[in-house]
Amino acid sequence: TLQVYITPRIQPKTCQLKQYQIKPLSLHRRTHIIDSERPMNTLKLSGKFSLGEVHSWIGYCIPEVPDKCPSGETITMFFQSTFLDTQLECNYRQGAVEFRSDNISTISILKDVITKLATQRKIAVNITYELNEESIPHSLRLIHPKLDEQLLLAKKVQLIDALKELSMHEPNLDFLSPEYKDIIQNADKLQAAFKLQPCHLERLYGMITDLYIDKFKFKGLNVKSKVPMLLEVLDNYELETLVDFFEISAV
User: Fold this and answer.
1) Residue 170, Cβ neighbours under 10 Å: how many?
2) What pLDDT does 251 receive?
3) How many whole angstroms separate alpha carbon 248 and alpha carbon 218?
4) Is 207 exposed, middle or buried (0-12, 13-18, 19+ CB in 10 A)?
5) For the stretch 222-249, what's the b/e string if a residue is b when 16 or more beta carbons lie within 10 angstroms of its beta carbon?
6) Which residues are bridge partners to 74 per DSSP?
7) What is the pLDDT of residues 54-78, one digit of tens each?
């Protein structure tokens, strides 16, 4: 839960406390259309739970779920990640729920959280899942443009000082490539963006690490000891090398 204390600038001085629940899949938003051609992973849970109970579990995990359960025997909702553009489909009724997503980490989070919520209410649930191996390279390719952009930014910033020094000694910079000219012209913007980079890179590295761990967790394997090797691959990032690492790596 995020707590925010709000104090106005005007008199009299007061303070208001606002609380916002940070949900396990907080970066998702409601949508009405999904791409049915994507490689989807499937998670199914069944047990002696009511439609209202499973609706509340989904609302605990995902934003933009109405407090009141919609009418009908079977409910379907679609969601999309605002960060990665991956998608999630929820189909549920009394005693059964099915989740489909092209991101295996989304499926893993739902499995862990809903199992915990059901256990707290002493409700036994049966769990089955079906993994689509094609969803892994698919997710990595969705991450690729964001990761590539951040790594390119780091390379550009490393060149700024050398290019600035060159510009001080060379009155005419026509011999420089358009890329280097752009770095000189936008040096301040690049450096400002670079200050935020540790946060962005940490998030992207974290998503890739979770994807790696979750893939093998569903196979009953613990690969946390291989995370340092994964980070080495990321430090020398090439998309196809990373895809290969996911495909061949095992305990």
Assistant:
1) 11
2) 46
3) 16
4) buried
5) ebeebeeebeebbeeeeeeebeebbeeb
6) 93
7) 999 999 999 999 999 988 899 999 9
The dihedral built from the CA positions of residue 194, 200, 202 and 207, taken in this order, carries a sign that is negative
Could you check whether the bond before residue 12 is cis, i.e. omega within 30 degrees of 0? yes
**pLDDT digit string, tens, across residues 192-230:** 777 776 678 888 999 999 999 999 999 999 999 999 999
Please say if the pLDDT value at position 89 is more than 50.
Answer: yes
Please tell me the pTM assigned to this model. Answer: 0.82
Report the 3 state secondary structure along the chain: CEEEEECCCCCCCCCEEEEECCCCCCCEEEECCCCCCCCCEEEEEEECCCHHHHHHHHHHHCCCCCCCCCCCCEEEEEEEECCCCCEEEEEEECCEEEEEECCHHHHHHHHHHHHHHHHHCCCCEEEEEECCCCHHHHHHHHHHHHHHHHHHHHHHHHHHHHHHHHHHHCCCCCCCCHHHHHHHHCHHHHHHHHHCHHHHHHHHHHHHHHHHHHHHHCCCCCCHHHHHHHHHHHHCCCHHHHHHHHHHCCC
